[in-house]
Amino acid sequence: MKKKRVEIRLSGSGGQGLILGGVILAEAAAIYDGKNATQSQSYGPEARGGASKSEVIISDEEILFPKTENIDVLLCLTQQSCDSYVCGLEKDRLLVVDSFYVKSLPKDYTNVISIPFTEIARDEFKTPMVVNIIAIGAISEMTGSVSKQAMEKAVLSRVPKGTEELNKKALHRGIELAKQYKK
Amino acid sequence: MKKKRVEIRLSGSGGQGLILGGVILAEAAAIYDGKNATQSQSYGPEARGGASKSEVIISDEEILFPKTENIDVLLCLTQQSCDSYVCGLEKDRLLVVDSFYVKSLPKDYTNVISIPFTEIARDEFKTPMVVNIIAIGAISEMTGSVSKQAMEKAVLSRVPKGTEELNKKALHRGIELAKQYKK
Amino acid sequence: MIKLLQGNEACAYAALAAGVRFFAGYPITPSTEIAEIMSMELPKRGGKFIQMEDELASMAAIIGGSLGGLKSMTATSGPGLSLMQENIGYASITETPTLIVNVQRGGPSTGLPTMPSQSDIMAAKWGSHGDHPIIVTYPHTVPEIYNETIRSVYLSEKYRVPVILLLDEVIGHMREKIEIPDENTIEKFDRKVPTVPNDWFFPFEGNLEGVPPFASFGEGYRYHVTGLVHDVDGFPTSKHSQIERFMNRLIGKIDNNVNDILKWEEYNMEDAEYAILAAGCIARTARDTIKVLREKGIKIGLIRPVTIWPFMEQPLINATKKIKKLFVPELNLGMLSLEANRVLKGKLEVCPYNKINGEIIYPSELEKFIEEEI
Amino acid sequence: MIKLLQGNEACAYAALAAGVRFFAGYPITPSTEIAEIMSMELPKRGGKFIQMEDELASMAAIIGGSLGGLKSMTATSGPGLSLMQENIGYASITETPTLIVNVQRGGPSTGLPTMPSQSDIMAAKWGSHGDHPIIVTYPHTVPEIYNETIRSVYLSEKYRVPVILLLDEVIGHMREKIEIPDENTIEKFDRKVPTVPNDWFFPFEGNLEGVPPFASFGEGYRYHVTGLVHDVDGFPTSKHSQIERFMNRLIGKIDNNVNDILKWEEYNMEDAEYAILAAGCIARTARDTIKVLREKGIKIGLIRPVTIWPFMEQPLINATKKIKKLFVPELNLGMLSLEANRVLKGKLEVCPYNKINGEIIYPSELEKFIEEEI
Amino acid sequence: MGKKISFYEKWCKGCGICAAFCPKKCITMDENTNKPVWNEDECIQCGFCELRCPDFAIVVKKKGEK
Amino acid sequence: MGKKISFYEKWCKGCGICAAFCPKKCITMDENTNKPVWNEDECIQCGFCELRCPDFAIVVKKKGEK
Amino acid sequence: MIEQSVVHKYLRKNKKFPHIWCPGCGHGVIMGSLLRAIDKMGVDRNNVAVISGIGCSSRTPTYLDFNTLHTTHGRALAFATGVKLARPDMLVIVVMGDGDAVGIGGNHFIHAARRNMDLKVVVYNNNIYGMTGGQASPTTPSGKKATTARYGNIERSFDICDLARSTGANYVARATSYHVKQLENYIYKSFNKKGFTVVEAVTHCPTTYGRLNSLKEPVAGMEFQKNNFIMKNLWDKLSDEEKQVKFPMGEFVDVDKEGFVTKYLNLIESVRQGD
Amino acid sequence: MIEQSVVHKYLRKNKKFPHIWCPGCGHGVIMGSLLRAIDKMGVDRNNVAVISGIGCSSRTPTYLDFNTLHTTHGRALAFATGVKLARPDMLVIVVMGDGDAVGIGGNHFIHAARRNMDLKVVVYNNNIYGMTGGQASPTTPSGKKATTARYGNIERSFDICDLARSTGANYVARATSYHVKQLENYIYKSFNKKGFTVVEAVTHCPTTYGRLNSLKEPVAGMEFQKNNFIMKNLWDKLSDEEKQVKFPMGEFVDVDKEGFVTKYLNLIESVRQGD
Ligand SMILES: Cc1ncc(C[n+]2csc(CCOP(=O)(O)OP(=O)(O)O)c2C)c(N)n1
Ligand SMILES: Cc1ncc(C[n+]2csc(CCOP(=O)(O)OP(=O)(O)O)c2C)c(N)n1
Ligand code: SF4
Ligand code: SF4
Ligand code: SF4
Ligand code: SF4
Question: Which of D95, D165, E65, G211 is placed for a possible disulfide with E61 were both Cys, Cβ 3.0 to 4.6 Å?
Fold first, then answer.
């Protein structure tokens, strides 16, 4: 997947850290890889407690139109977010879901990868806190839009002090997962 | 003085009842003589306690431009009002002043009548309250723009109950004064 | 009955005759007489008057009163109008009939509280944030104030829209002769009420004219009213299609009924080569000026908007087809002239004459201006 | 330093870099981040932050702060803007430099609090009652928000006028790459202060540009500030000649310096046969659209106002001399298009494209619209 | 649900308030679903879980009702 | 004016407050001019007329001052 | 069969649920108490209006099957004044957040109290601006954190009940979302009175106030109420130090001064009789 | 030679006199007391700001040779808050009418008190809207007449001092234009305190309130004050009936809670020291 403009939508529930995930992805691309990137998210009372989304656009060129128009990858960490946000995704584009929370997959999508992010976080890292980092690790690798080094720097600059190693590991675990699940 | 449009400015201090005086003049013309008439007055903090004015336009035709443009008669019951409002009067137009309060007459005016309204009110009527009625009686007669009958009806419909006779007398005294002082 | 009334008095008595039974307001020169009269007269008719703590609250209260079923109004002047803007937008989006009388004085800010000005024309249309429907009317004589007050109440009820009645300080405070019609001869109009039971009722579904029937609170229709964009059922929506449908109806209500809403007058336009576009007190100046100019052989006429918003686009185009130049005298820095320029698209020259020194325009100066420009 | 910042963040940091040391505000979506950052950052720089009880008070407080000598700002959104209008007029008439950031959301009223809209363009200019001077700027990217915030503070101080910085929700809430200049490289500008002793000082006498020098409170010039129309000495006047002189200078300050105040950009206009007029986030849509259309061989360019009020009259006329049609896409029911029509006086056709469903305009739809209209 | 409690699962947001303040501690939150589960035998039908549920997801039958 | 009182006649609006509340009743209002007149002999220079004059038209010399 | 409670009778169930409030937000608890109090009144629901401003709490009317009005931020009482004057027989209930009621809306609050306007106010006090994400409100305690008071709030806070009392309300009471039966009872009592009445319903916002002040779990917010709110008569007996950390609840005012509506209706009577 | 009083030193004499107030209006009396209190302070007049809203009383700054600011109706305290925060060392005096202060401006009043904002407030309370010609104000007593209350005011009135006290002012006192020495003294005392202070200066408006309520002569208004305002300690001892017709004056609050400005300056200190 090598494109000038890559559009990524990360979705899940309020507490899963996907806004930070999006920011890290975008910072990796924009600050550390020297590309252009934007990040935006859903706001408003309707988002409260329910499904939330974070969108990242990465491009070699100047990013003008500021919203996603042709999403390349959609990540869904919960069933509700999958139901709410899948509509923006063309049927042949990449849909990545959490295998634990998303049981009923939307119909007709031809390019779906189901990965046990939640279970890996719980079982291997003993904390649900890293699920976002694992997920963006996987996404960054799948889209090939950001370098590993940039991702690492971005993660380290953003996560709370004392959790650097843990998150670095989580990032690499995500990258690995991407390779493993790549079709 | 027989004109289609007659413009009258009544001026004095706040408490002298000249707004009511103007209203009576205008009502006499508009309601009882079947002409057209407008009345307006000065508003605002600058008027507070100081000079106040009330303007009446009487016309056989529809009154469009709502302000005085060529004043025919100016009445001044105080020196301050005379100083403030004489500027709107052409030098050859009629200036009527109270002989008690207005001692220093503006220069170059060729048509000035000085009448002891205040003294007459005090001496003959034992109340300063009727000074406005005496004055408009005189003015109505001088301009010839309103009929005596109309003035009488208008006065009676506006003055407080119990003072009808007094005010009627005052009106007639004013009309008489006009004849007496006419040049 | 023939009377000599101030413009503000005529407005108050006309509102009463039109059936206004609720007034909430806050005093401000030069509109205060309206509140004062309403405070005296409303209780006599079983209506309610309340002096609120400020203009924000006054506008809010009359929306509440209107939803409660009473024809409702307030009166204010520039600074108060600015304070009402948020809730005027609320009346627009909730489609609550309300009459706001704005007796103009010199702005900006406290400005010239006792002097005439026409500088709220734009604020009346654009003052509240966001696209919103509004009707603005602008009479020029005391008798017309009477009639336009009644028509404004009527338009507001018919289209469920706030109506701003603009007055000029000069006329608000001037006594003029007026023949007051017998209250019984004044056309009665009542809100269109729903004819379906509660369960079937969509409170914000337009009729043919785009206007929903109006159920007052307490009459068995328990619906929801909100300043959020809402769907036909009254509940907030974030669906783009519903938002679009709603906004189109909201604005369309006015746009699609301009013919019914617009009112204007033409004087001496039959053979005119030149025309004046003027409203309110300046239209009076203009008519006196026209008399003089015509005597001098200049064929000039007057176009006078009575409904000032929506603007008389098509009528102005039609009326000026044969006109060489349009003069636009105003007591502001150019508001009607901007509209004229926009609408006429360069088809004829628009000559603004703006006066902002706190005085109204004299016929003599307008005459001079026009003669020089011709 | 390269960063990824939200538009709102860029605005706050730019204000700090421009020397803003006083912020008074009231939270409202989608502007709140600006207040939140200022509350954190101002004390670090010895500046003052206060959350006021409402937007009326916020606007009032920053005028006070500015008179006290601090560069001052507030941030709000539609409903708050409506509430500030009275005091915005006060800042205009007292010539008090103030920056009002208005992050637009869908109106009218509470409207669509979290959705993009450009429907406050008119309210920004005309919202406050009475004729009043105002400057409105409208950036379209995060880096430009940074620069325009600084320029807005500068304009406001230079011309002693309130400046409204309009933002789009989309950009206010979007993170984008920005290279933040070293604070030391940012041009320092300070108020022009009087150079005469107190006795000789006429606080409201303009310099060559029509702007009076500014003495902050407490610096020895004990003058009077009022929202009434006043003479050069600062005291209220009701003399027509003084009123006229004052109003002419007040408005002239802006009118006579448009060349300094105006800013706009043209893209691909060199050979263009068609043009798009668009501001803010929609200018971004337009540029993407232009790319595609140009690939298809359609010669089309973009004219983008950065200073939106005063409107770029002459530049628009110049830029469109060879243009066949002007497309005006906006997230409102037509505001820039009204201006374009007015200014261009029928010289070319103006095609508005208005979207009011809470979504921004997609390049694909704009492309389709333009292709159909050509 | 059982005889004493009606539970609108769809409305429940899993806040845990019902469980925390049940005087008989007869409500537990299911780890997987994050929804309350009642031990109805212990329940004295005091009604507090209904009154304090912010989401109107609980109806406690009145004592004696079936 | 005399030794005890300075009076700015131009600022006086003739309200009569000075006269009404003078503890020594040594001020009277002139019928014709409607302005106060002092009987300075009676005046004890208490200063109240100055303090209560709404128009700053009176200055009472301090006792002992000349 | 799934049972319904009295509360469910009044909900716009099919359209609007689950509501938008966050998991564990106390606003739902207050709304329940409010509905039970209305139910006890036994009034025709066509004759009940529920009016709010803007905020999370102000979403209440959306969910309720009465005449409902969601107005502008801070102005609910002014709108309600109009409704009440137009419909003097209607039970007009006004629900507001703390920011809505005594922040931006403070002037309407004190004037409605002064006029003794016949409105039944329930203030959902979560000590913060919830809807906009946690800025300080006029009831945020000194020292507590908010997104516009990251260094700790340096302002003092209003005591809503005291403000209502000192400006003239006929009935003033406070309870919490934990003390749900008292809350219902006070609301019910206020509905039975004429004139201006205020019930302050102390509640918790786990999402904003909680997150910033170590009360992130909904349960923690209610625990706090349970442990720190005590009945007024007991609170009065506390030492001054204890009074700093505990909060009184109960009924603070219960008088029967004539309200504006009664007086106005009398005025109409007397004017019409021509005296 | 014509003598000058201390008051004349501070007047913009050549430009602005005689002032616009009506003959006998009490506003001038209060302005005199205010100036004597400022004079006693012995401060540099460049370091004094006098700020007002809109109304007859609010014309005060026009006449005074300080930094003067005549703002919008009701908002003086909000403007003054900005000035004070920009110039913490300045003596910032705010003069307002009753309508300005607690009518349209009520919210700013209670919030400035709550924040204990370091502003020195003098309210010229003439119980009416003077400037606009005599409409009822929130301090017009029940039963009294106004041009919007021709049948007698049915609303209750605010006690400005009590409102200031209950919302947190550091100093609160009341005197009248008759009791001119006390007035000056209270104003002076308030200037020496930090935090929010309020002096209610009861005055009379012969032109509007007086005309409508049989106190048309200026002297009558002052007579009323003389006969009906008595010191608080004496008033407290009156019977309930007497309390209905007499009014207390004196000092109601005199405490020293830390004000907003001090707290904010401390905050800056501590943030800059990085703790
Ligand atoms: C005029 C205006 N200013 C600001 C806002 C933004 N706003 C919406 S809700 C709110 C505060 C809500 O706080 P509160 O009233 O305490 O209710 P809560 O959300 O905490 O229940 C604010 C500031 C607005 N809608 N309108
Ligand atoms: C927003 C706004 N509303 C109304 C007015 C009109 N207005 C000017 S002064 C005033 C009331 C003045 O009364 P008060 O504050 O008691 O002072 P006083 O004139 O009695 O000294 C009013 C209502 C205004 N200037 N601005
Ligand atoms: S209190 Fe209600 S919402 Fe919370 S867990 Fe229990 S049933 Fe669910
Ligand atoms: S009704 Fe009472 S005892 Fe039974 S589960 Fe609910 S809270 Fe527990
Ligand atoms: S933000 Fe707070 S007040 Fe708003 S719904 Fe969530 S928990 Fe409740
Ligand atoms: S109207 Fe009243 S308050 Fe105003 S100046 Fe005259 S007497 Fe004083």
Answer: E65
